[in-house]
Amino acid sequence: MAAGSASASSCGGTGCGSHCSSSSSAAAEDATAERLGRLSVSRECGKCGGGVGLCGECFRAHLFGKFKLAVTSNAMVRPTDSVLLAFSGGPASRVALQFIHEMRSKAIESWDASNSQALPVFGVGVAFVDESVLCSKPKQEIDMAIEDIKSIVSSLSVGIKAMHITPLEDVFSMASKDGEGRLREVVDMIDDDTGREDFLRCLRMLSLQKIALENGYAKIMLGSCASAIACHVLSATVKGQGYSLPADVQYVDTRWEIPVVVPLRDCLARELSLLCELDSLKTQQHLDRPSNGINSLVASFVERLWEENPSREHTIVRTAQKLKPFSFNKFSADGYHDFLPSRLRPKFQNVDNDESTFSGILCLICGSPFNESELRNLESTKHKAQKKTDLYTAHCCQSCRFQILPSGGNLYEHFFSLLPQFWTGRVDIVSASHSLPRDQIAEYLLEDNDDS
Amino acid sequence: MDSSAVDGARQPPARAGSRLCTRCGERKAALKRPKTLEQICRECFYVVFEDEIHRTIVDNNLFKSGDRVAIGASGGKDSTVLAYVLSELNRRHKYGLDLFLLSVDEGITGYRDDSLETVKRNEIQYGLPLKIVSYKDLYGWTMDDIVKAIGLKNNCTFCGVFRRQALDRGAALLKVDKIVTGHNADDIAETVLLNILRGDIARLSRCTFITTGEDGPIPRCKPFKYTYEKEIVIYPYYAITHYSYILMSLCSTHQVYSYGIYSPNAYRGFAREFIKDLERMRPRAILDIIKSGENFRISTTTRMPEQGICERCGYISSQKLCKACVLLDGLNRGLPKLGIGRSKGMAGGDSDSEQQDKRSERNRSSLQGKHGNIDF
User: Fold this and answer.
1) CB proximity B37 to A under 8 Å
2) ipTM > 0.90, yes or no
3) Predicted confidence band at B354 (pLDDT cuts at 50, 70, 90)?
4) Element (H, E) at A421
5) Which candidate from B199, B288, B289 shows the least CB-CB separation from A315?
C-alpha cells in the first residue's frame, strides 16, 4: 500500500507510462525511475495538493508517522531508557537514526516547555559493529568508511550520547586475547555459505548485546524494515525454522538480555532509500560483503515478486504476523507500563495466558526457541550425554546444526571451544546442576582421541 | 552452484574411481540421489525410494486393511508412478487394499486422449480397475467448450474446480474410502510458499497435512508428500530395464493448463523456479519448507472458513452454492466470467461490478441467511 502511494502515481507502480501524471516531463522521469526499480515522489501531492501520490514532505511525514506509531503503540522506549541504535550505515538504519534523533529532540523541547519536568527524556547511543577483519578491502578504504560513519553520527546536532565502534572479534575477548584469530578460525570451520552468513549475524547481535550491557543501555533498536523481514520470513521457512519464525517478526523481542525493538517494521526498503535520497541523508555501504547462498537467492526472489506486485513484501510480513508470537515478544515486566498514560495502559495489561507453552529453551547460537522435537531430543540427550559437546549440540536448533556446525562430528569439540563464552556459558550453567559422568572423571581418563 | 550444492548436502568430495554405492558398498554407484546427493546404485535406489513411501504410509496410518482406495490418475508421471508403487507395496507389505484408478476426462483434445491412453494401459498392466468420469457427463461442458466460451484466460479456474469435484464424484461412484493423489514434495513446498506470498493463513495451516478432508465423506491423502519430483522422474527411467511396462507419456499441454503461460498468477511460476534454484543449492530445502509448514504456530483461534453443503448439488462448500455450481451457472447463462477471481473493473465492466456487488452482499448476508448469491 505504502509502495503504491509513494510510487510515482495512481498506476500502482506497474508502469502505465505517460498517462498517469499531469506533467509529461515529470512522467518521463517517473517512468525512468520505475524502470530502475525505484520509487519517486510526485510533484502535486494527493494529500496536500490536488494531484496523485505524495509529495516529499507528506512522504516523509508518512514514514515518520509509521515509525512513531510503532514506537509509542508498543511502548518501545520509556522516558528513563537509553536506547542503543544499531547503525550499519545503510539507508534503513540511517533513517532510524534520523527519526529517533528527531523524536528525542521533540521530547526535549516539550520537556523544556513543561512546568513539572517530571518525566526525563530518553537517551540515544549509536553502535557500529566493525566487521572489517573479515573484509577483503584495503585498509585505507575501511578506515575511510569508518570515518564516514563517525561523521554521519557527529553531524546530528545534539543529543547522541555516545558512539560505540566495536570490532566484531571483541565478542570473543572474555576468554582469550586473540579474538581475531578465533573469529577467523571459527568462521573458516563453517562449510556452508548461508550458514556462515547467518553465524555472523548471530555474532553481530551478540556484539550489540555486549555493547549495550557494558554501557548501560536499556534497549537495542534495529533498522530492520519490512523488506528485510519479508526476506527473513522466506529464508527462515526455507531453512526449516517455521516454528521459531514468529519470534523474529515482531516489534519487540525480549528474549535477549537487552530487549530489541524494531520500529521500521512497516516501511519498505525502497521507501527508506528514497527518503535518504530526498533528505540527502548520507549513507555508507562500502563495507557490505557480497552475499551468496540462500539469503541472496531469497532476496532476488522477493525483488522479482515486487516487480510483479509492489505490495507483496507487506503481504509476506503480514502472513508471518498472523503466526502466534512468543511470550517474549512483548514487555511484561512488572510496572513496565506505569509511565504510559492511563488510557493506554489497559492495552498492555491484558495478559493472555495461552502463551505458557514456551519452554524457555533457546538455540545456543541463533536464539531460536525450540520446538517439540528439538525439546525431546534435548531431554533425551541430557540423560544419556557423556560429554559436554553432546549437550552443546543438543542445545543447537536443527537448522544451526545443519548449516553452522562443521561437517565432521569429531570437529564439534574444537568448534564449541572456539565459540564465545557467552553462548556456551549458558549451557554450562544449565548443566552444572547435574554434571556429566564423563566430565566428573575426566581428569583420570587418558584421552586417546584428543589430538585428532 | 555445484560446489554449494555439495556444501549443502554435506557430502565428502567424491573421489574419482572409487564410486561404490554409499549404501550397500558393493555395487557401482549409478546415480546421485536428488534428495540427499548420496551416490548409490540402481538397486539401492529402488529400495530407498519404495521404503520411504512405505514408511510414510505406515507412520501416518494412511490406510486400514480392507480400504477401497482410488488413485487419482491423470496419466502424468506422478500418478503413474504412484499407481505402480502403491500396487507393488500393497502386494509386498500386504496392506490389504482394493485399489482403483480414477481418471477425469476434461475433454481437452490432443491432451486428454493421450494421457487417458496411458491410464488405460496402466489399467491393463497393473490389473487395476479404471473409472473415467468426464466433464461432459458431469457438467455438460468439455474444457474445449469452456475455452471457446471464455478464452485462454482464467480457464484454469474452471479446470481446477471442476476436476476437484469430479474426482470426488468419481470416488463416490466407486464407493471408495480414500482418494490418493500424486502430489509430491516439490508441489507441497510450492504451495507453502504461495500461501505465504498471498497471506492465506487458513490454507497455510492445512496445506502440509498428509491427509485432508477427514471430516468430509472421502478423505484424500498424499503418499508422495516427502518424495522429490526428480526421484519420481528417475524411478521409471531406471526401472525400465526391470519393469519395462512402466510407460510414460508426459504431456506438455498439461503444464499449459495448470501452471502455464495463461495462468493469472505469474508468481506461481516464480515460486516454482525459486524452488528449483533452491534445490540446486541445498537439496534438503524442500523438506525444510515442508517442515516449516508443519511447525508454523498457527493460533487455534484463527478463523477458518466454515464448511457447509451446496444447496444445489450437496457438495461441500463454504458458501450457499459450491464454486462448481457458481461457475457452471455462469457458463450456462452466458456469463462465463461469473465467479472468477477478483474483478479489476476493466473489460466487461457490467458483469464484473455486478459480481462484486453480489460478493459483498454475500459477505454481508452470510449471517442473515436468505439472500441468494446466484439468483438474479
Assistant:
1) no
2) no
3) very low
4) helix A421-432
5) B199
